[in-house]
Design brief:
4 helices
Length: 93
């Protein structure tokens, strides 16, 4: 496996908040230019590896699949936590 992918996945395991989509006060995802610096740190990797197809030869299909599964699992958890927070707080966002 590509060492960079291995490191990104390990970082997602140890610092998931750096990769989670943050939600704004209205409940919508925050746009990248308003993110906390910890979220912006890995924005380049997400743009390259999750939001579009990486350049041919950079990664295998399996490496891309593993990284994307990990990334979207983090978003699933972040979204669920946001919903639970809204339910507990009794707010709409």
């Amino acid at each position: 496996m590509n060492q960079g992918i291995r490191l990104l996945i390990a970082r997602m395991d140890t610092h998931p908040a750096e990769f989670e989509i943050a939600f704004g006060p209205d409940g919508s995802p925050k746009v990248p230019n308003r993110l906390h610096p910890r979220h912006e740190r890995w924005r380049w990797a997400i743009r390259l590896l999750v939001e579009r197809e990486p350049p041919p030869g950079l990664l295998t299909v399996e490496e891309v699949r593993l990284l994307r599964e990990k990334y979207w699992a983090l978003q699933d958890t972040a979204f669920s936590n946001h919903v639970m927070s809204c339910l507990i707080d009794g707010t709409d966002s």
